[in-house]
Amino acid sequence: MVKLNFFIETEYFKNSFAFDKHIDKVADISVNATPYPIKSIDGQTLFYLKEKTGTTIGKNDYATVSLNIIGIFLITFSFFILFSNYKVQQDNPQNIFLFFVSLFILRTAIYFLGKILHYEQLGLFNSSIFNSTFLFSSPGGLLINSILFCWFSVFLWENIITLLNKSVEKLTEVTKKVLGFSLTFFLVILTFSVVHSIRGLILNSKISFDVTNFFSLDIFTVIGFIIIVFIIIGYFYFTKILFHLIFNLFKDIKIVIYLSITIFGLLIITLFSQITLVSLYLPCLAWLLLLTFISQYEQVLNISHLSTTSGIVFWIAVFSISVSFLMLPEINRAELSSRREFIEKLSTQTDPSSERLINIANKYLDNRFFIENFRRLYNETENKKIRDSIISKNYISYLSKYDTFIYLFDSLDHPLYNPDGNTLEVLNTVIKNQSKQTAFSDIYLYQSDYNKYFYLTKRVIIDSGNLLIGTVFIISTPKKYGRVLINPQLFKQTGQWELSNSPTYQYAIYQNGILTESSKNYPFTYSLSKEELPLKRFDIREQNGYSELWYRSSKEKTVVIIKKSRMLLELITLFSYTFGFFLITIVMSFVFSAFLNKFYKRQYGKTKWLYFSTIQNQIHSSYLIIIVSAFIIIGIASIYFVHNRYENVNNEKLSRTLNIMLNELGTGDEIDSLVYNHSTSADSLAPKYLIELINTISDIHGVDINIYDLNGSLKATSQPDVYNSYRFTDGQQNNQFI
After folding, report:
1. Average pLDDT over the chain, rounded to an integer
2. Number of Cβ atoms within 10 Å of the Cβ of 435
């Protein structure tokens, strides 16, 4: 029952029990007596455990959730087999209805089980990543829905065609026309719904589809592509059913099909779609007309089934190209929306009035105020009153823009009823390693993401005898961006999300048309003419292969963020990803279909090629396997190349920085006397000049510096709090921090 406690808890150093980290979720060490004593071997009570409040016991993991869903699937499918007498009755409408009910029960059971077992604890089922509607409340829910939609579409196609052919022959001519127009209208609605779903997945989620920026992709990107693939496959089989019916209902007047699709599509766009979506739905309507034409002559083109390699490759290519052209504008629209947030935040951050507003709001919270009231802070009731009074006394302009959080510590650095567990060491580390000083000496800017930041005001309270009374930290968080979680780091970190370090974006800030601040990797003009200033609040320009977003935040201030336009590269890369996911998903679907064939002891579906019954099927199957293998190998090789290139570039950058720092350190005579001459003078162990030199170089390059002698003993450091205050031994320093 040994608990690890670090003076600063970070992502890599967690305060947790050594033997079982899961116990941290439900219990903690208590210095007071509780019903849960921990005793030594001889029976002496060492300490007590206390129960944590507001925690969930038994957090799920992906393995548990997967087994739960598989179990529900097997139970539901067993009932389906039982009611269908262990034989799927093809061309039987009752069997189709039974299958639909089984899928509905399966989806409902997963939904309620997720509520009971708290699936939202997992990122895959967390609505914070994607939350569009009730049915599509998380990536996991959307993945399950897309799989079930695809499965039902395939099942419907395999079991309803013969039945429909028999039923259509019995209809009157008037009924055929009415049914034909109804199915055509449904076809248009289905197409627009699929387009809307894919668009919503891109715009309404935090999933990155920026395929040209490999390091922005994660597991949710993979899930997103799988969702899109299943939606498209389900749509493909559904449209095959609709086209089969529509072509039979309008045998002699095929032109009516194209006219009705056009009229219904234009009516829907005119009456129900937003103006901003017209540019999306009109090309989709034209694409639907093209798909109708291809489907009409698919037998002539020998692409009528997915049971041949030519049919598989053709339809995968068609839908991969179509999805790529659909996704690319939406991905760019999502990127542009994010860039607007970046540019607004950047404008606010670099606005001196924001810093002045913070300074004015906290001006009266000076040394005199806290000396007069500090004794009251030790009482919980009085402490709360003072906090409420401090916040309410700020003037309305500040209160309307910022939320205030106050951290109070006594002279021994003990917290005084603070809002959370952030310690004085954590806040000091945030100031030293992760914040930038503003124009005011006691106000710092902390940024944790593109659109997450706050201002941190630090006040050290000292009495007339120069004795420390306590320390006060005031965090002012912009209401527009919400509260920011503090993620402390022991050493200086270079955030890839910082615009000054971004390989994707470059920025410039103009004050009265004069350049005041900019990135170093793009040649911005020093001044702007009146014609170059944006007339609107936001202005998008395409110049010299760059996409420029201009933001006129005020009459005097203009901010611009640019991004290199790579439309062709993005389109090709997006097509490659989509094509690869289509291939892999279809192969896995056929394997699953083969499993069902064996399970039912019949040929479920028309994928006979899996059994390699003919030479033609063997050749086609081998060709498909070669294509899939080639995509996998090329994909792995590309990822490996990009990763290695990234590592090499970083290593080269670190090497150059290290050489520059060594040259700068080598100019100081104190280095030789301290390290190589092994001086033992007390004054030379940490000379003021050396410390100032190290701190200056550390601030310039954004890294920490430690200097050791030849015996491995630390002589000087830019992080004295880590090494001196917390008494690391020389061996620990030598092994862990060089």
Report:
1. 77
2. 20
Q: How far is CA 732 from CA 12, 68, 736, 738, in A?
A: 17, 46, 6, 10
Strand partners, 539: 550
Residue pointed to by tokens 């996998």: 632
The answer to whether 435 and 414 have CB atoms below 8 angstroms apart is no
Mean of pLDDT values over 608-628: 60
> Cβ atoms within 10 A of the Cβ of 667, count?
8
The strand order across the sheet containing 557-564 reads 514-518, 505-511, 557-564, 546-552, 538-543
- CA-CA distance, 373 to 383, in Å (whole number)? 9
Burial 150-187 (b: 16+ CB within 10 A, else e): bbbbbbbbbbbbeeeeeebeeeeeeebeebbbebbbeb
The three-class DSSP label of residue 199 is helix
Phi, psi of 678 (to 5 degrees): 55, 45
Residues near 570 by Cβ (< 8 Å), separated by ≥ 6? 211, 212, 328, 331
Mean per-residue pLDDT, 696-713: 75
> Taking the alpha carbons of 544, 546, 547, 552 in that order, is the dihedral positive or negative?
negative
* Chain-centroid distance, C-alpha 329: 19
HEC profile of 200-239: HHHHCECCCCCCCCHHHCCHHHHHHHHHHHHHHHHHHHHH
Half-sphere exposure of 625 (CA within 13 A, CB side): 10
pLDDT tens sequence across 26-62: 777 776 788 888 888 888 887 788 777 655 555 566 7
Angstrom distance (rounded) from CA 348 to CA 351: 5
d(CA 503, CA 521): 9
Tokens coding 100: 């639909």
Number of H helices, E strands in the chain: 20, 17
Sign of CA dihedral 479, 481, 486, 488: negative
* pLDDT tens string 310-320: 677 788 888 99
Least confident of 124-128, 172-176, 221-225, 440-444: 124-128
Query: Could you tell me which residues are beta bridge partners of residue 30?
Result: 48
**β-pair type (27-30, 45-51):** antiparallel
Encoded tokens for 229: 């693939």
Main-chain dihedrals φ then ψ at residue 443, nearest 5 degrees: -120, 130
Q: Measure the CA angle with vertex 106, ends 102 and 110; round to 5°.
A: 170
Listed residue (481, 475, 504) closest to 208, CA to CA: 504
* C-alpha distance from residue 692 to each of 661, 687, 703 (Å): 14, 9, 15
